[in-house]
């Protein structure tokens, strides 16, 4: 996966709803622990992949976090630059309803913003907090409890899978999530 892959067939058209997930690596001095984008995946309403790419960090990577994200040095060597990927993602996000789990973290690592009224964050949806005793539930927990899907079994290696699960959760609770979003904005 050495280039940005965009798929625009009839079945994979972008549409109004997209879900994204990002993976990060650690860069810079070990005392700073800065995290930067290393991979991003975006899926449409039907779970079809719109974008899936690694991202080459500008700074030297000090921890690939391979045991968590599955990313290795070779994955990033010939990857597109952060600027290329950020520009493409920014174009895709325009006028879209954005779905994700703890989406603020993904937007922060992308250095992008999105209108609050157009964000559906599965980590902040109040009914989902019942699955974790009122605290923020993990995507893994929600997938198992609500969708009966096991994800992140050994490693947290599939951003595509995580984006798809966030979209499935949104689709299952679309009317409630849209109503809550409308009421708070």
From TrEMBL:
GO cellular component entries: nucleus
Gene Ontology annotations of biological process type: ribosomal large subunit assembly; rRNA processing
Pfam families associated with the record: RNase_T
Keywords carried by this UniProt record: Exonuclease, Hydrolase, Nuclease, Nucleus, rRNA processing
UniProt-recorded Gene Ontology molecular function terms: 3'-5' exonuclease activity; nucleic acid binding
Residue ranges of domain Exonuclease in the record: 16-179
Coiled-coil intervals: none
InterPro entries: REX4_DEDDh_dom (IPR037431), REXO1/3/4-like (IPR047021), Ribonucl_H (IPR013520), RNaseH-like_sf (IPR012337), RNaseH_sf (IPR036397)
Main localization category: nucleus
Subcellular locations according to the entry: Nucleus
Protein family according to the UniProt entry: Belongs to the REXO4 family.
PANTHER family (alphabetical): RNA EXONUCLEASE 4, RNA EXONUCLEASE REXO1 / RECO3 FAMILY MEMBER-RELATED
Role noted for this protein: Exoribonuclease involved in ribosome biosynthesis. Involved in the processing of ITS1, the internal transcribed spacer localized between the 18S and 5.8S rRNAs.
Protein name: RNA exonuclease 4
Organism: Pneumocystis carinii (strain B80)
